[in-house]
């Protein structure tokens, strides 16, 4: 296949990953838990809008982006990953009454257990911790760790995922997403380099991830809802693979139905890194806003998200391998 995608500069790709994820989150939020086909049925001319609904204002980002911002700001303030600090910020946010919070994430953050054992304890008690809740917030840390290389970015992804998700399947999925964003930020094609990334997935989880991320996999092949980590990332890759623009990739993702905000947040992180900020429609970035429950009246919009993305991209260059 001839690759006709433009090649934006790395700064535009880093901003594209962070803003693209936030845009996907806000665009998909009103369609959460809906049936497939609802998005395209609503926007028959193919030009989706930030329409709001389901408790969300037009352009309002959800827990996916809120948690990504918390991770990014912690990484900046500490010059790297301080897991206990990230966990504290998550707890403060959870106590601030966010409109939405993942089931596994909420159980771990509000259970009163120490940061370094809470997720493992929850997993040991329930056997359920492979939700997409660590995947959805990965854009900021992926930008921060990209320049540190594959091993470092995948290691950081696993540690941040493990704060709320005890199942290694979630760690590995988040590590894969980190590496695919890294590849895109360097100007590579994540779909082409994917086989290399898969070689670095934990051996116990490699076969399942290889299946769900293969070019022959279709979201209809999913064996669980896309609230689970495997079909969520599988669907995001499918949306990227089967479209040729940022806008169309999000439309394909949201039209799958189910956990639309998160599938679109993950798709948007990837597609934003591939196509860059200029490919993100202004009619989507203009109403975009990210409230931060638990942190006063703070609301991040495009300028603040841009600043965060640039700071993370620059910060990653000064300490290339702190993991
Ligand atoms: Mg959400």
TrEMBL record:
Secretion signal span: none
Hydrolase in keyword set: yes
One Pfam family cited in the UniProt record for this chain: ADP_ribosyl_GH
Superkingdom of this protein's organism: Bacteria
SUPFAM superfamilies, A to Z: ADP-ribosylglycohydrolase
Keyword entries, A-Z: Glycosidase, Hydrolase
EC assignment: 3.2.2.-
Single annotated GO MF: hydrolase activity, acting on glycosyl bonds
Keyword Hydrolase: yes
Family to which the UniProt record says this protein belongs: Belongs to the ADP-ribosylglycohydrolase family.
Record-given protein name: ADP-ribosylglycohydrolase family protein
Species for this entry: Streptomyces xantholiticus
